[in-house]
Amino acid sequence: MTTAPDLTHLTAVQMADGLASGEFTSVELTQAHLDRITALNPVLNAFLQVDIDGALATAADVDARRAAGEELPRLAGVPIAVKDIACTQGIPTTAGSRTLEGWIPPYDATIVTRLKDARMPILGKTNMDEFAMGSSTEHSAFGPTRNPWNLDRIPGGSGGGSSAAVAAFLAPLAIGSDTGGSIRQPGAVTGTVGAKPTYGGVSRYGVIALASSLDQIGPCARTVTDAALLHEVIGGHDPMDSTSIDAPVPPVVEASANRDLTGLRIGIVTELTGEGYQDGVQARFDESVQLLRDAGAEIVEVSCPHFRYAMAAYYLILPSEASSNLARYDAMRYGLRVAPEGVESPSAEQVMASSRDAGFGDEVKRRIILGTYALSSGYYDAYYGQAQKVRTLIARDFEAAFEQADVLISPTAPTTAFKIGDKLEDPMAMYLNDIATIPANLAGIPGLSLPSGVADEDGLPVGIQILAPATQDQRMYAVGAALEALLAQQWGGSGSVLDRAPEVTTGAVSEEAK
Amino acid sequence: MSTQARSAHSEDVVGYDEALTRYDPVLGLEVHVELNTATKMFCGCATGFGADPNTQVCPVCLGLPGALPVVNATAVESAIRIGLALNCQIADWCRFARKNYFYPDMPKNFQTSQYDEPIAFDGYLDVDLDDGTTFRVEIERAHMEEDTGKSTHVGGATGRIHGAEYSLVDFNRAGIPLIEIVTKPITGAGERAPEVARAYVSALRDLLKALAVSEVRMEQGNVRCDANVSLRAKAGDGATSAEQLAVPLGTRTETKNVNSLRSVERAARYEICRHAAVLDSGASILQETRHWHEDTGVTTSGRPKSDADDYRYFPEPDLVPVAPTRERVEELRATLPEPPAQRRKRLQGEWGYSDLEMRDVLNAGAVEVIEETVAAGATPAAARKWWTGDLARRANEAGTAVTDLGVTPAHIAELDGLVRDGRLNDSMARQVMEGVLAGEGTPMEVADARGLELVQDDGALEAAVDKVIEANPDVADKIRDGKVQAAGALIGQVMKEMRGQADAAKARELILAKLT
Ligand SMILES: [Zn+2]
């Protein structure tokens, strides 16, 4: 693959330019990705569904339009992968759950409609932790996705499928959803870029809900500019989502051309560094801070004292909302239906119970039980009520911090990718992987993760997170793009951390990981 | 013997008057009103009644994965108008809440409702009782929510889910906007509590109709009433005495789906008699829901209910808060119609109807149509006579609404004009009406086509009078002797001679002129 120019290894911008100049066609580009998916997906398990016919049909349509001289959207013909949490009309959508196995949505999520309007071939649906509950994609009902950097490692979660697909060049772009870090943390541990927009910046209509007040849809890419281009495709007001912001999309593409950091105030959140962060993670973070400082940014330390309660609040709010959002999976109208064993003529309630028992995995059940408990009469104030107060305090912490700094930074995740199976018996250990990403979801502010290098001790990628005030998404793209350029200069080569990733080959899964 | 066990059989009751000698009844009413918005509460689906099952549905009201609600702005405005008409405070800021429970006809397994932040609260409705007095019912709250789907349980004896072979669910109703209006405990009504309950629901129905926010057809389930009843020991001198009001409320039962005005009164009365029997026996009332049986006039035990029923309410995170500006609330207040009771009094005065006549008009549901008919030019007396007389009888026979007979207020006004102009007499007017009902056209067209017209030719009338006098010399003599009332017999024969097309008053005039 090193001799002939491999179309799959281009950036989305390069693909768009190549298509526009007629260097190659969308059918060629899409076919190259489909071929690579065919070869490597059996190893990676990044895709749950591949829509070969649909993707090629869109590609051929784009090529025909381009040949006819039609003016096309910037990313027309550039293929994309969609997390299996977004409804796609006619393509099975499972959210990684047995309960929705085989369910074919009769409608498209708004973001899917926007991808279609942008004439982007949809390659397929990517693997995820069941209903986005997890940080490793091990909690998918359809088997774990493997990290292209090391097949024994997790690709992060819940959107491990999207990030692994992008990291392994199975797709240049992918859709993710981020409830507590599910775009950013997989981005960090796979050496890719992931952005969680401001809450309300991208429509949630048709995206299967985990926790309504925390969920946000965003782009996964290999460069900051590519992410920004996708952000502008999917972002913007949607009358079908009441929580969608009725304002233009922040100018993120324009911002991603920025290279100037002079005078910019960048805040380091003291609560999100130091203890608990892997040495290699901390080292790469410190290095990036030095690069930013050298480029003229003013580095300030900010404290967000209530972040220490963020994890606790998050694990009350998320399960509470999830317990209600997931109540609809009752086998009455769609989805898996399992009759209770040994019951002559079961009641509707008995069928609901046995179907939910069979359809949901342990992590989902754990959170439904937690949430049901937290919302119960007599406990509501102590749990859900208190958690909402913490949320307000965290939002205030951010407000105060953004008075001192234009953006905030931290390592995206405290560690590099852990081994598949390592934390299955210890949910708390897995939850802690999202400690740096959760506060942004609680406050509704945007966050972006980009690669900051690889950890010396394990050779695995490390991410740095940039946070901006609500609706100021362009700031994190501006700083991210500038830092990305500084790092590329330092690293040389193509400038991508993925240069250092081993080539994925078939049959490469170790016995241990099987 | 527990109350639960007793409720399976026919239960003991105490006579109503006797019950009232020992107990003071307290009622509470929860009324669900289906709004008449064109689309559902949280999606764009149509709300029309009677469509084929599951044809008015979409991802949102079916609770498909990923679907999200959007609030129907018209429903919010209707809720605010209802709140204002009930003299309520309107919230500056309120949220929807999820009421979580599993049921097959509820697509999301939670109902999007309102919990501790209703759109309207703290109001009252003054209701007229049969004796002409007014009773004030305090309103606790009015809140917005969505309806559930409708289950039909097939097989089994009861029509209930228990024992059914299978169940069918129609989701056309799922997501229809509802307003739930909850009264404060209605105290101080004493023996008139059941009547107050009926009068309240009746007044509420009139109000909703005047607001034009609901079809208010109880038989179609547009208005559904749950009646809470409790008894407490009688104390002091009368239901409104300080001593009586100081007695704590007893345990209540909630009788669900009492869906006619008459049933509201009967069910309340029955529960009072049943509670009294339970309390007399020394047992205590089980807090439960009860089912009302229209045919037998009794309630039976439903499921135990307690204040601890845990719906795990929490604010709906998929919807933004509802925050009507004060300016908007005042604009909506300006759209409120005249309160129905006040309007009735005004119209009665304007039309000069007696109390009895007005009650007939109200019972016939003919206020609006009479108002339109008078506006079209008829006299109030003629309008009343037609709409509550012949036409009401016909509508009753046909089992239809009087306004659905094909006769319009303009028809009545035209017909009345023909009578007043002397072209038609009463019997001819009735013949014309037959024609209008048969679809033969307007009264004028029918009269022309059927050749119905009073004969204005005095010569013909005089000839007929002479002929009749000649043929009835005995009667003529009586009249000559001063027995003027005998003229009636001759008038009848003159009319017969003229084949009905004569003015009876004129005939009488002529007869008397010739014989006295
Ligand atoms: Zn609908």
Helix-and-strand structural type of chain A: alpha/beta
Shape of chain A: globular
Task: Provide the number of structural domains of chain A.
Answer: 1
Helix content of chain B: 25-40%
**Number of DSSP strands of chain B?**
14
- Please tell me how large the radius of gyration of chain B is: 30 Å
Bulk shape of chain B? elongated
Low-confidence stretches of chain B: 1-8
Give the mean pLDDT of chain B. 91
**What's the story with the biggest beta sheet of chain A?**
11 strands, mixed
Question: What do these coordinates show?
Answer:
The complex is a heterodimer of chains A (514) and B (516). Chain A starts with 11 loop residues before the first helix and ends in a 23-residue tail after the last helix. By secondary structure, chain A is of the alpha/beta class. An eleven-stranded mixed β-sheet of chain A has the order 1-3-2-4-6-5-10-11-9-7-8, sandwiched between helices. Helix content of chain A is 38%, strand content 11%. Chain A is globular and about 70 Å long. Chain A has a single domain, classed as Amidase signature (AS) domain (Amidase signature (AS) enzymes). Chain B is an alpha+beta fold. Chain B has a nine-stranded mixed β-sheet with strand order 2-5-6-9-1-10-11-12-13. In chain B, strands 4-3-14 form a three-stranded antiparallel β-sheet, with no helix packed on it. Zinc ion binds next to loops of chain B.
What is the element layout, followed by pairings?
The complex is a heterodimer of chains A (514) and B (516).
Chain A: H1 12-21, H2 26-44, E1 47-50, H3 52-67, E2 80-83, H4 110-117, E3 122-126, H5 160-167, E4 174-178, H6 184-190, E5 193-196, E6 216-221, H7 224-234, H8 252-255, E7 265-269, H9 279-294, E8 298-302, H10 310-325, H11 348-359, H12 362-375, H13 381-404, E9 407-411, H14 427-431, H15 438-443, E10 447-454, E11 461-467, H16 473-491
Parallel strand pairs in A: 2-3, 2-4, 7-8, 7-9
Antiparallel strand pairs in A: 1-3, 4-6, 5-6, 5-10, 9-11, 10-11
Helix pairs in contact in A: 2-3, 10-12, 10-13
Chain B: H1 3-6, H2 16-22, E1 23-34, H3 73-85, E2 89-90, E3 97-100, E4 110-113, E5 120-128, E6 134-146, E7 150-154, E8 166-170, E9 177-183, H4 193-211, E10 223-233, H5 242-245, E11 253-256, H6 261-280, E12 288-293, E13 298-304, E14 314-315, H7 326-333, H8 340-351, H9 355-363, H10 367-375, H11 380-388, H12 390-398, H13 409-420, H14 426-437, H15 443-450, H16 458-471, H17 473-480, H18 487-497, H19 504-515
Parallel strand pairs in B: 11-12
Antiparallel strand pairs in B: 1-9, 1-10, 2-5, 3-4, 3-14, 5-6, 6-9, 7-8, 10-11, 12-13
Bound molecules: zinc ion (ZN).
Zinc ion is lined by residues 40, 43, 45, 57-58, 60-61, 175 of chain B.
